[in-house]
Amino acid sequence: MTPDGFTFPDDEEKLVITFDEGVPVAIDGETVTLLEAFQQLNRRVGAFGLTGREIYEGPGALALVTAHEELRKVSIGRVSGEVRLVLHRGNAVVNSARDERALYDFTTGATFDRSVA
User: Fold this and answer.
1) Predicted local distance difference test score (pLDDT) of residue 104
2) Domain 12-100 has CATH 3.40.50.12780
3) Burial of 84 by CB count in 10 Å (0-12 exposed, 13-18 middle, 19+ buried)?
4) What does pTM read for this prediction?
5) What is the DSSP track for 62-96?
6) Backbone Cα Rg of the chain
7) Is 11 helix (H, G, I), strand (E, B) or coil?
8) What is the Cα–Cα distance from 20 to 75, expressed in whole angstroms?
9) Residues 62, 76: contact at Cβ < 8 Å?
10) Do 25 and 19 meet the contact criterion of CB atoms below 8 Å apart?
11) Domain-wise residue ranges, the chain
12) CA dist list (Å): 98 to 47, 64, 80
């Protein structure tokens, strides 16, 4: 699954994983089953050298756990939203996470009435 470090792509790849109630349901806007998500992510993420520290390889699972943990930071309850990952030379870095039911709403801005302070 994972090539040696000399054959990793020089370019980065970006992907978007969509979760619904904690389950990955789409990758880059394409609806996938859970099995298809693992298969596609193993292939795509594995090409960039992301592996675990154990004796087995599961780059797709590592990418899903990374994305899911980041989405949990902004969500209430079971996560439903999108996480954007950037893959590059052994790393899967979260670029952004979005959930419609997020803990913070950036559109409300500063709503504290400063005159009462």
Assistant:
1) 67
2) no
3) middle
4) 0.76
5) HHHHHHHHHHHTT-SSS--EEEEEEEETTEEEEEE
6) 17
7) coil
8) 12
9) no
10) yes
11) 12-100
12) 26, 15, 9
* CA 115 and chain centroid, separation: 41
Alpha-carbon distance of 92 to 67, in angstroms, equals 9
Question: Residues 23, 34: contact at Cβ < 8 Å?
Answer: yes
The label of the residue with tokens 């079971």 reads 78
In the predicted model, is pLDDT for residue 18 greater than 90? yes
Mean per-residue pLDDT, 21-29: 94
Tell me the C-alpha distance between 83 and 92, whole Å: 11
The candidate with the shortest Cα–Cα distance to 14, out of 91, 63, 72, 87, is 87
Helices and strands (H, E) in the chain, number of each type: 2, 5
Q: Left if phi > 0, otherwise alpha if psi is -120 to 50, otherwise beta: which for 68?
A: alpha
For range 16-40, the mean pLDDT: 95
